[in-house]
């Protein structure tokens, strides 16, 4: 099947192993693949890498941007980090025209102003090629942790655990990239780091990065580590003595919704179940040294019973409408894009079913304007004739949203 023939909402939502990041209050979605459950179709289709989907959070409208330059090969499982007006993509599993080429350690940069790709050639000792890792920016540099890939072919200063089935390995490599010097960097860290893992989740709050869960061999972990980027000290597992801890998982999301609160959502359990739970983590003061952090404080956030299908291998971002002249957000909400699901009675790894809709979790009441727009669209059969009485800007907004919801 040609994915270009799919309706826009399916083309955007039916993907896994993709990149989804926030940029100036917008959501950017790129890459990944989709599975076909129809036996007559090829099992996997990788999405084009010369296109980027941009979600405008104010209008709630998607826009497709065509990209140029050094177009990356089709891939999945890479890591995307935004620094300034550039989206950097590292690693993943590269897809050749008819076969998988394997893991890569290539680093690409997409200029978000000109929509032009560049293949970078950093100096220094390169990282091991890998997929299913996490990354973030700090102090004008990029940093990456963990992943799954080939066994190192040189002496390394990080740990790795070999997978007997594939001959590849989980690792806990921690490395950086300096755009100013175009150099790979290997920071020296203290404290107890997380064990090797892949398909973990992470996000940064201030000068601290939080690493949650992930898979090592047959175990999907329920631990939580904090790295202070200013002192380069790991905290050790702060879930170890916590009173309540979310069940172990991989392929989940961990996303900060404010400077003192993070959200863990979904994932794949040790018992091969796709999860649909949501947990809130309250963050202690950043003045407390990481080696003295108290046990993690978790509480489950109850979602409506009809919230949506369970999902794993999704991506989640905090988005909102920018205050004028500021980078702060109003109407912050967590958007969950893509991923795989399974019937509730399945307990085996038969993950062929894609989720079809984007989920939005609101942590504050919607504004009156957004409630009114949503109602106008929901009851369009009754009120469509009245739209022409609205200001032209609202007419245009409703018309564009209507065309995407009811193509």
Automatic annotation (TrEMBL):
Origin: domain of life: Eukaryota
Name under which the protein is recorded: Kelch domain-containing protein 2 isoform X2
Keywords: Kelch repeat, Repeat
Entry-linked InterPro entries: Gal_Oxase/kelch_b-propeller, Kelch-typ_b-propeller
PANTHER family according to UniProt: KELCH DOMAIN-CONTAINING PROTEIN, KELCH REPEAT PROTEIN (AFU_ORTHOLOGUE AFUA_4G14350)
Pfam families assigned to the protein according to its UniProt record, in alphabetical order: Kelch_KLHDC2_KLHL20_DRC7
Gene giving rise to this polypeptide: LOC113206326
């Amino acid at each position: 099947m040609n994915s270009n023939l799919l309706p826009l909402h399916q083309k955007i939502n039916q993907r896994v192993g993709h990149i989804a990041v926030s940029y100036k209050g917008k959501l950017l979605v790129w890459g990944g693949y989709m599975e076909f459950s129809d036996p007559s179709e090829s099992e996997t289709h990788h999405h084009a890498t010369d296109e980027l989907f941009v979600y405008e959070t104010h209008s709630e409208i998607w826009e497709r941007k065509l990209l140029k330059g050094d177009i990356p090969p089709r891939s999945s499982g890479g890591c995307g980090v935004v620094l300034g007006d550039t989206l950097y993509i590292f690693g993943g599993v590269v897809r050749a025209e008819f076969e998988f080429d394997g893991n890569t350690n290539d680093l690409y940069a997409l200029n978000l102003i000109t929509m032009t790709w560049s293949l970078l050639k950093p100096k220094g000792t390169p990282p091991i090629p890998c997929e299913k890792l996490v990354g973030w920016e700090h102090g004008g540099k990029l940093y990456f942790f963990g992943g799954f890939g080939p066994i190192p072919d040189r002496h390394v200063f990080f740990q790795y655990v070999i997978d007997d089935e594939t001959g590849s390995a989980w690792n806990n490599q921690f490395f950086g990239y300096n755009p100013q010097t175009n150099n790979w960097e290997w920071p020296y860290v203290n404290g107890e780091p997380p064990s090797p893992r892949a398909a973990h989740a992470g996000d940064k709050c201030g000068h601290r990065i939080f690493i949650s869960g992930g898979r090592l061999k047959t175990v999907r972990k329920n631990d939580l580590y904090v790295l202070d980027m200013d002192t380069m000290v790991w905290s050790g597992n702060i879930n170890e003595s916590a009173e309540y801890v979310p069940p172990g998982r991989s392929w989940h999301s961990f996303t900060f919704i404010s400077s003192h609160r993070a959200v863990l959502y979904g994932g794949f359990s040790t018992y091969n179940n796709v999860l649909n739970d949501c947990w809130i983590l309250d963050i202690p003061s950043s003045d407390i040294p990481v080696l003295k952090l108290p046990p993690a404080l978790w509480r489950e956030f109850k979602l409506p019973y009809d919230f949506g299908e369970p999902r794993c291998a999704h991506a989640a971002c905090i988005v909102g409408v920018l205050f004028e002249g500021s980078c702060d957000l109003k109407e912050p909400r967590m958007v969950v894009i893509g991923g795989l699901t399974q019937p509730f009675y399945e307990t085996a790894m038969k993950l062929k079913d894609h989720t079809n809709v984007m989920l939005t979790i609101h942590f504050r009441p919607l504004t009156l304007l957004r409630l009114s727009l949503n109602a106008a669209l929901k009851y369009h059969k009754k009120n469509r004739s009245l739209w022409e009485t609205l200001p032209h800007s609202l007419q245009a907004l409703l018309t564009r949203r209507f065309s995407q919801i009811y193509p």
